[in-house]
Amino acid sequence: MSQRIHESTLTLLALVCATNPSVIERLWRELWASCSSYEALPSGSKELLPIAASHLQELGCSLAELPFPTDLSSNVLLGKCKAIWARNALVLNKAERWSRLLHDAGVEAVAIKGVVSISRDPVLARGRQTLDVDLFVPPEQWELAEEVLKRSGEFREYDAPMQWSEGRGWMHVHAQHWRGDGIDLDLHRHPQPGFLEDSRPYALIQPCLREQNGITQPQTGDHIAIQLMHAFSHANAASGASFRYIMEALRWLPELYSRGHEAMKVQLALHDNGTKAQKQILHLKRTIETGSN
Length: 293
Fold this sequence. Notes:
This protein is of the alpha+beta class and 293 residues long. The protein is built from twelve helices and nine strands.
């Protein structure tokens, strides 16, 4: 993710964090000034657009009163939000069901990534598309978790466990993919994405967990650190999927900076991935906080 971020993506990242109606309206107009049509938006911006719409609704703004390009309308965008909300409700239901299934068998499953985001933030529940459930299971409980999931009858098929090894004091792993009926499960042996060569940010992540909607999940600082490490993995950076993770960090940073010890984890995750794009993001954060350009 060393390339420059498209102007429309930066504008949307700012918009989903702004709270001043006049600033939001200005950013919305700047968005379509930098990109004249919906189809011309890069994939990262298209993914953020329903989140922006959800954020505007949360603040009481009327999308119908805002300008739109000729190939997109407020009704179409709100329809996308409704479809995302319905899908996310099903994903959360599965996350609760599978978490309970594993916990009842003595497996300490912890939800990570998108499930955590949509369970905590109503804006993300309506605008952030979450396709599957991600659960972290400690390596020593991996075999038990696999047995429980096999017996459950909830999955059509699953990948064979991928090879993992301990090197330099940390685990180099993949997630195991379980295919369900429309919603899949990724079972992780470590909260970091596969093939990252530096796990130092996770030295700060402690097993400080909390219950939310019946799902065990990390504290906010740990969750955002995990999201940022996934954002800056090669696969997400190449696909443009990085920006939804970055957006979540920006939305939660004000809360985290009121509790400095948790913000340290996020800062370390950022600094260990220093690129031009991330410097732009940090500049954007300061712009949002000060209201300056």
